[in-house]
Known about the structure:
The protein has helices spanning 3-14, 18-25, 29-36, 45-54, 59-63, 85-95, 99-108, 118-137, 143-163. It is an all-alpha fold.
Amino acid sequence: MRIGDRIKNRRIDLGLTVDEIAAALGKNRATVYRYESNAIENFPTTVLEPLADVLETTPAYLMGWTEDPYDYDKDPDNLIGTIPGDICRHLAEIYGGDAEEMWKAYQSMDEDSGAEHSCAKKIRSESEERMLFLARKAEEIPEEQREKIFKNFEDTIDIYLEAKGLKKGDD
């Protein structure tokens, strides 16, 4: 797909008119039509970056360097905000805060896909280590606090099972 096709498709996906794009860029509608028809293919960054902003995408997508139109750096749909806290922190460590890589890794962690991502293994491993530590040290914890911990753990398991549509004892 050429740059003009990407511009036009993105504009249509967003429900924008040529006139709206032209006004946002400070260009006339004929210029936008020339962009979309591939009559103009060499875009300076002074045009490409504002055009990508208006189309809620990235210059890399418009240029054809990536097939994903989503702008992970700006994250307009707050995708990264939907990643649970501990998982998000681990993904940020692993991917150096690269939002696109974090989101794609999180998506690949879908346990129903049958493939477990290395980050999911790391998180699971750390959780297992914490539970084992707690089990080994349980006798050292005063009974009142130990009961609270066990109740908390039971509640967490119940919430997980409910979220998965399972009941205790289901495998």
